[in-house]
Structures are given as structure tokens and as C-alpha cells.
């Protein structure tokens, strides 16, 4: 606070003096005032290879930078601008319909979109099917919107890249289900049913959409908005056949399930097309969750390198009840209630870090019967500095005694979870307490550095259960017994990227290991599969094309012989000279 200069690592000397800037907040629970707008006075090179942006007036808020949690600086001005002449009276909009052609590059869309009117958005792709494939929105600025930032509805193969959306009275970037359901919303004292629809989405629709290196900032519900206030999101995802790479969502607020990224129920899904890919996205300072899902999709979907910080309730909240989402290499830090909330009968979390929240993982009740053969698995994950407990669960009692004793109860469903090779750094490990189903258990398997009085593998059960070999253990408010459980650990993989064969060649080299053998290693750049190798050495020379980004994200995936997977760290590879 008080600074008139912002330091950045990237050369922004082509940003024009007088251009309008946005500086995003880094604190939890940001107010609208924390999103600060300033005019750019100039850009200059300073020591340490950094660049200084001189601002028209001092900043009123503190904005962190340079560490793991850093804010963004976005240029809102463009030399081509489309805006409403009288935004307080009548707002314009733009739309691509069936038969249209063309793309958008480096244009500004300001004061567009009509509050509460379907189809009136700053940018709208409407029911174009395959006709939109290859179209793009690049380098655009969409701000002070009256109705979303951008809507993609029943249109395939659109890329949104290097774009900023700032200030919307509902959702931000929306991939809309082909038959979209708008839940009833309240406008003053009237309740309006926006539309009715079938329960699910459509196959063959909203396939191949890509969001890459795009910033969504400040979406706040306002009376009259099209969107349900409880679930405002900066990225509203209603397709399981799209890609999100290197995006940031900061400052969505509405009700208890507002989120940076929202994976909605009833999505469009085409099994024959590439499944949802989410890699290296960041959610920060959102009212409730960084990532929120409410889907019962049976497709196996991987969320890789999610970074979710300082959100009001959770870093990620996984629902509803029965899906196949898997999280790899996540970093969930300093969220308000818990870092990870689980509403499903099973999920998978691996190679992640959860730190500095009241609770690390919290298990909510779920009204579907659980299967002890397919438990939730949290593998090779570190838990640090949680003030209440690293692991906790809902302690409500079952209102029906006969359901409490049924292993397959839906009314009072059991919780089964395995924590494989966990690392706990200080504080209380587990608040098992009571659970509404008597058959619930949590296994701690090959615990790294357990207390001296515990074996490295234990099963934790409810304190009223008298299993053979069990004993009370007060630190967990439960009973424990030694556990003999076979472990099939996932593989491990590390990736290096080096120049090869000239400036444009990149040698990708992976080191992969698994006790039962590695079946394959796959290499990716910005979510695109580059190659698959089934035997060592796992090396591939990639020659990026002209369409590749200047700093693509590269990573590897290892697959073992039992089908388990692991992802390497995601690496930003700078292609010097481009």
C-alpha cells in the first residue's frame, strides 16, 4: 500500500503510457475496492532483470508479489474498443451466429451486456456447432460488463487466450450447456423461472473449447442477474470436453458455493472426444471455493496442478456424491474453513500439499451408498499447519438406528478413506470423532514418521466399535487397530526440458518409476499430447510450431501396469527469441 510502482518480471515496455491497468488483490475476502485501477505513466527497466510500472497514483491496498501467492497486473485498454455510448440507459452486445466467420484479437469490450437478458453478452458464440471450430478470442479485454464476460453456447473448437475479464454482475466466462437450465432466481420480491430443460447435456456439443492464460477478476452477484446467487463463478464449466490451462480466477462472490472455477451439473459430454483437461489453474480470494464441482459424471477426469489460495470456505469442494474426479499435484493453502471438502463417496487426491487452514481434508455426508472396495484415496500428500486437524469428518448422528448399522445405507452413508504414505507436519492429525454410519473407517497406510506409540499403518474406527485387536486412542477420539494392507503405490515421474537441435527444438526427458513396472510415459504441451513411449529411455524431441505459445507449459504423465497414473511438475518452458 502507498506504492506508485509495481515490479514485474516480464518486459511490458510495449504497454502504452496512459493505458488503464488493473492490479488484482492477494488478500482473503477482497472487497471491490481491492481491485485497483490506475493509469500507466510508463515502463522502465530496473535492477535484477525486472521492469517497473509507474502508476498515476499510489495504491491503497497491499498486493503481494514475487512469492507463491502473487497478484496480477492486467492492461484493460486497447487501441480498438467497442463500448456502449450510453451504458446507464442502453447497452450493446456482440454475437456470432451460425454461418458467421472470423476471430477477435486485441480488442477492448467495455460497458457491454444487458443485465438479466438472455443472449445479451459482451461476446456471444451461439449454437454454431462445428462452424466455430478454429475461431478465437485472443488478447481481448472485457470489463465493466452488465452480463457475463463471454458466453460459448453449443459452439465447438473456440480458443480464448491471453484475455482479461473484469467486473461482472454474475458469472464471468461461461461455457453454457446446449440445453441450459437457469435455476429460479429472486428479483426483489418476484421469483422468476428462467428456463426449463432436460436433466442432462447433449453429446457432440461444446467440444474442443480452450481457455488458456486468461484472467477472470471480480464477479459479484447483483439483483436482476441471470445467475443463481448461491453459485456465482468466474469460469462456469458446462462441458466435459474442454481444456483450461494456466488461467486465474480471483474474486467471485455470491452465496455459499460461489467459486473461481465451477464444474456444473448436467454437462455436455461426448465420450469419443478428448475429456476435460485442467492444468495449472489458480483460484484466489473467491467468496466460498477456489474450485467447486457438482457433477455425477462417470468419466475419469484429472485436475492437475490446481493452486487455490485464501478462498472463503475451501480450496476445492468436490461434489456431488458419485463422480470420478482425480486431483494431482494440487497446492491448497490458507483457505477459510478447510483446504479440501469432499462430498462424494470416493475421490482421488495425489502428490499434493494442503497447508495453513483450520482443516486439511473434511469429509461431508453424502446420500449415496459407499463401497469399501472403492474408498477415497489420498496418496503421498503433505499436511502442514492446520489449526484444528489435518483430517476431519462430519459428526452428525444418524436419525434412523437401523440405517446406522447398514454398511450400504444411503440415508446414513459410510465414509471409507485411505491415506497412503501421508506426511503430517505438526498439529492434530485426525478428528475422527463420531460418524453417522457405524461401519466407517479411515486407514493411515505407511504413515511417514508416526508417533512412537503407533504402528506405521492403522485403521481408525468409531469409538463404539469393538473390532478384534482394536483399542481406544484419544487423540483421534476413536479406536485404532494395526493394519496389514497390501499397497500398490502409484508411479512417480520427473521431467526435464532442454534446448535440442537448434533454438526451436526441445528435448523432453522423463524419469519414471513404479514397483510393478511402468507401462507408458506421455508428454504434453499446453494440454496437447506430444507423444507416448512404452519403454525407456523416455525421451522425446518436440519442435513447437508457429501456433505454440512463447512460454508453453510442458509436463509428463506416467502410467503403471495396473492403470495408476502420476504427473510430473508442470514446467513453463521459455522459448527464447520468440
Task: Please render the helix and strand layout as text.
Elements: E1 5-8, E2 20-23, E3 36-45, E4 51-55, E5 73-75, E6 81-83, E7 95-96, E8 104-105, E9 108-110, E10 123-129, E11 136-138, E12 141-143, E13 150-155, E14 159-161, E15 164-168, E16 173-176, E17 185-187, E18 190-192, E19 210-212, E20 215-220, E21 233-239, E22 243-245, E23 248-253, E24 259-268, E25 277-279, E26 282-284, E27 289-294, E28 300-304, E29 307-309, E30 314-319, E31 324-328, E32 331-333, E33 338-342, E34 348-350, E35 353-355, E36 359-363, E37 376-379, E38 382-384, E39 389-393, H1 401-404, E40 416-420, E41 423-425, E42 430-431, E43 441-445, E44 458-461, E45 471-473, E46 478-482, E47 492-499, E48 506-513, E49 518-525, E50 528-533, E51 538-542, E52 553-560, E53 565-567, E54 571-572
Parallel strand pairs: 6-9, 7-10, 8-11, 9-12, 10-13, 11-14, 12-15, 13-16, 14-19, 15-20, 16-21, 19-22, 20-23, 21-24, 22-25, 23-26, 24-27, 25-28, 26-29, 27-30, 28-31, 29-32, 30-33, 31-34, 32-35, 33-36, 34-37, 35-38, 36-39, 37-40, 38-41, 39-42, 40-43
Antiparallel strand pairs: 1-4, 2-3, 2-5, 3-4, 17-18, 43-44, 44-46, 45-46, 47-48, 48-51, 49-50, 49-52, 52-53, 52-54
